[in-house]
Amino acid sequence: MKKEYLYSPGPTTVPPEALGVMGAPMFHHRTARFRALFAEVVEGLKDVLQTKNDVLVFAASGTGAMEASVANVLSPGDRIVTVNGGKFGERWGQLGRAYRLDVDELMIEWGTAVSPAQIKKHLTDKVKAVYIQLCETSTGVATDVKAIAEVVGKSGAILVVDAISGLLCDELLTDAWGVDIVVGGSQKGLMIPPGAAFVSVSKKAWGLVENSSLPRFYFDFKKAKKSGDKDDTPYTPAVSLVRALRETLALIKGEGRDTMLANAARYAAAIRAGMQALGLELFSQASSNAVTAVRMPEGADGAEFVKKLRDTWGVTFAGGQEALKGKIFRIASMGYLNEFDVLTAVAAVEFTLRSMGVAFTSGAGVKAAQEVLLG
Fold first, then answer.
1. Domain range for 138
2. Same domain (yes/no): 277, 366
């Protein structure tokens, strides 16, 4: 009997508490019952984001909230700065061009992190917004959001951060750092299925919303805020996901936000130590605690590795994307994990590499990971 293990950087494993409420009988969303539920969830999200700003929730994937963060704050021809250091930073540029914006796309080597100095060089009086990642999911790179926020905060531009995969893994202090818009999604560190997305919006960002003339309908910040002020949504919410989110936010609060961050850091460190003990090279030069990207050994195919891992052992990792396809694999360290899950992931790498004829010292990866976990 094969047991399934999920280590993809989204979707992640869903805790039993959340699974249980999603199977409960449905109830109508235009009720006091839902409004009470929704208000509780929004307050929980504010705590996770460390913000007192408005938090708007949409029934969408994270990309929907990314698009909303473009369509609501800009006008045709406005200049924005985006950072293409991976598949999801690249998406900011694609969204900007789709809305006919003047996109200044800062190209950096995939696997590296953009620096505040690089951002500063691209900041002019014409720039309305800067779009960056907390974690670039495709490469496992963490961005120094705090330092970049200091630079952008001195300009007239707003800072928009895609925290979809990095949330609760890499530190993000929205208000203290002066981040204007944070984009999040449900299926990563928040531990529920895909389909719910959210944004926090600062007063500075609301100033741009008032003057924005880009088209939008469903993803309309003003509509969402008007309903949100009444603990409601303008359109049909994902009721089951909102119920599940209340459960995982309660788990996060019970565990403690700082503990969640510390656990992600420890699990990621254990995974990295395990990979290096096997003679494998890490891909990222600025590692995120959300996901670890690992180079495949010379002569071994990453696509074959990920397929064999899943089909033989029931273990799901993520492969490389675009030019990295077949060259790297990615292991998530976010969400509903514990120490034994980490050791299982490292052991699965050993099993699969051995079956592919890759030479290494058996047990070296698990031992190294265990030493990190035991401190």
1. 16-254
2. yes
